[in-house]
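Justification of resources, computational component.

The compute hours requested in this renewal are based largely on the per-chain cost of generating structure records like the one below. Each record pairs the submitted sequence with a full structure-token output. That output is archived, and it is also reused by downstream analysis tasks.
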Amino acid sequence: MSDRLQFPDGFLWGGATAANQCEGAYNEDGRGLANVDVVPIGPDRHTIITGQKKMFDFEESYFYPAKDGIDMYHRYKEDIALFGEMGFKTYRLSIAWSRIFPKGDELEQTK
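The structure output for this chain reads:
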């Protein structure tokens, strides 16, 4: 018996993305603002994430990485093609809930 880890035949290598890290386009096509959008980089990050400091909109003195992400919203075809070039056979993506429920309190999905 070998001590090497082996993946079974037919194992599918893949990739995944998270909307808040890559999507960008926070203000396009009816998307609402999400709490992760207003979490800045910098010394106040932890206090905002933990709710000790409230931030409900963007402030000029901060940088918000989720605002633009890697702009996958506009570059998704190119980005998915890169997964294919890497040999990935599967892809899992997430979509920001604020695209489906822009206000956060709708009873049904907006169209």
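The first helix runs from residue 19 to 22. DSSP finds five helices and two strands in the chain.
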